[in-house]
Write a structure and sequence with these properties.
- This protein has ten helices and 14 strands.
- The protein has 337 residues and is an alpha/beta fold.
- It has an eight-stranded parallel β-barrel with strand order 7-8-9-10-11-12-13-14, surrounded by five helices. Strands 2-3-1-4 form a four-stranded antiparallel beta sheet, covered by helices on one side. A two-stranded antiparallel ribbon has the order 5-6.
- Helix 2 runs parallel beside helix 10 and helix 9 runs parallel beside helix 10.
- The longest helix has 17 residues.
- Bound molecules: phosphoenolpyruvate and manganese (II) ion.
- The site of manganese (II) ion has 5 residues, from loops.
- Manganese (II) ion binds next to loops.
Length: 337
Amino acid sequence: MIIVMKPNVIEQDIKNVINLVEDHGLKTHLSTGDQITIIGVVGDKSKLSKCNIELMGGVEKIVPVTESYKLANKKFNMNSSIIKVRDVEIGGTKFVIMAGPCAIENEKQIIETAHAIKKSGASILRGGAYKPRTSPYSFQGLEEEGLKYMAKAREETGLPIVCEVTSLKSVETAYKYVDMFQIGARNMQNFYLLKEIGKTNTPVLLKRGLSATIDEWLNAAEYIMSEGNKNVVLCERGIRTFETATRNTLDISAIPIIKHKSHLPIIVDPCHATGKRAYVNPLSKASVAVGADGIMVEVHPNPAVALSDGPQSLPPDEFELLCNELRPFSNLVGKTL
Ligand code: PEP
Ligand code: MN
């Protein structure tokens, strides 16, 4: 971090800042130019978190040099992380496909879907039991009953399961069933929830908030990791823009940017990004091309009667086609599917 002093700052103000920083165990480098004096600070900046340096006499501004997230930062951990969800590795040589209905509706629906997606090449089953719907009158999910059906689907197919949690209570319940927690876009900055799942060892799929910057997203990952749970996978699911042709706008550039800034794996959810089935296939291919570690796709045995997100869900035959078409793309980038 660099402390920029005001032009014509008096000597005593500079001394006060240097003393405060050094009293907290950090080192300083003073650089005095013709116009501007700057103080470089070296050491653990968190020790200064309670000091309002920007309010001290003679201080113009503070310029951070490194990002506030450390554990999620590639600068401090150069090796790409591989996150294991049971026996499925995310971030390794496999292009991982997570698939399943937006919401678990009944036992038959989830079991039928689980068998179909496994046959086509998916390796993780998704399904929502706690649904954060825009309208309170829309289907809100089967909660624990749904989780039991998911666990049954895992028993039958061997596929690990990922389910969204929306509250501390749902974490307590879902903890007993799921192999991976999903934090949805709406809860990306629910810091209490992030801290709570950070205290578990269960892998977490952290979706990007609707209007979150990449740095805010990585700081959300940091919340989980700083509590001890390092098993975080990021999911780009589209952000809100002025465009109305799609439900959200898939920020495809986020994938190489995350790969540059973080060692965490990242997958893409082209369904919530677009809201339209027709765009899921081309954007899945784009996701492979830009280096994503996988995708999450909504699949429903009959999307026309789905209780949630039918228009963006693929029927099993279209999902099979998608997997078949993705295989050569994955091979091209050195990943198996
Ligand atoms: C979902 O995965 O069903 C979901 C609600 O996603 P998001 O949080 O990205 O909207
Ligand atoms: Mn959905």
